[in-house]
Amino acid sequence: MANDFFTALRISASGLAAESTRVNIATSNLTNAESTRGPNGEVYRRRDPVFEAESFSDTLDGALGVQGVKVSQIVEDQSPGRRVYSPGHPDADGDGFLTLPNVNPVHEVVNLMSAQGAYGNNATAIETLKTMAMHALEIAK
pLDDT band at 59, cuts 50/70/90? Predict the structure, then answer.
């Protein structure tokens, strides 16, 4: 029974970690939505985490197909940036156009809201598990 609690905790903890990464990346995308140049001199490119099911192969639960989630990689969106006519800007090209990042603030806010909801669900699951464990200890007295 204790193993079931720990497995459930690991699953929810993996969800918390993955959603935390998702929040950080969406925040970075929003922060750089108007950046015209990064440390490498290139325009910022929107990033997205890629989630992957994670088997707990080190436990019997792994053999039963119980899985958590992990961020397997962070990918850059290769779509073109927004071009804006701004001839006075120091980063404008010869035709007076400035390339801004391929970040859509509305999309990023929706990403943040979705990640917040998923994070909250995992936190609620952990709290429920904690309450169940406390009740089990009370019964065992």
Answer: low
